[in-house]
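Supplementary Data S3. Sequence and C-alpha cells for construct A.
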Amino acid sequence: MKKFLLVSTLLLIASVFKIDARMIDDGDVFIPIAKYMEAGDSDKLSVWFADNLQVEVLGSINNCTRNQAKLIMRNFFTNHTPKSFRIMHKSGRPPMNYAVANLDAGGSQYRVIIFVKTVESRNEILQIKIENQ
C-alpha cells in the first residue's frame, strides 16, 4: 500500500510540474541524444545543449550559443540527411561523460564525438564534433 501511494504521488507530481528531459536519472543520457541525431532533429537535440557550447562540423569550429548551435546542426542535417547513428563507445563519469558514434548521413560516413556534463542536476551537451571517417 505504501508503495502504491508513493508511485501515485510521484505520478501526480510529474503531471503537475513540467519535468525537464535533461534531468539526471538512472538511464543512459546518450539514448535520447542518439535518437535525435539519427532523426536529424535539431530542435529536439538543441534541448540538450548547454547555454554555450562548441560545435565542430567538418573542421569548422564554432563556440556558440544554443540557438546558433541549433542552426548549425539544422544546416548539417539539411545537407547530410541521417540514415543511421550508432554509438560505438561511451566513457567518463559524472560530471563529464562522452560518446563516440558513427553517423551515416548523405551517403557519407562520419565520426561524432559528444561531450555531456552534468550541471545542477541536468545533463547538457558541451561539445559536438562531426568529422569525416
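Construct B, processed identically:
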Amino acid sequence: MPSFKELVEWFIQPGVSRIFLICFIIYLLLLWAALIIWTTKDIISRTNNIILQIVSIILAVVLNIFGVLIYLAIRPSKTLIEKFFEDLEYEALSDSVIKEKKKNKKFKNKTK
C-alpha cells in the first residue's frame, strides 16, 4: 500500500492534477446548469408573474447555489396546479354549503 507522501506526489503530478481539476470544473459547470434548469422549470410551474420568473432565473445564473437558496426562500409555496385544485375544492365546498342551506330553508318552510 502506498504511503500518504507517495499519494500526494502522484496527485500533484501535472497530468493527474490537471485531469482532476478539469473533471471538478466540468462537474461544477454541470451543477450550475442543472440548478438553472431546475429553477426555471420550478418558477414557471409556480407563477405567471414574469418579473418574479426573471428575477429567480437571474439569481440562479449569477449567484449559483446561493441564488437557488434565496429563490427557495422567496418562491410561492404552491404550484399553479395545486392552487387550481384548491380553488376548485373551495368552490365545490361552498356550492355544497349553499345547496344545504337552500335545502334546510325549504324544509323549514314546509314544516311551518
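The first helix runs from residue 4 to 11. The chain has a mean pLDDT of 88.
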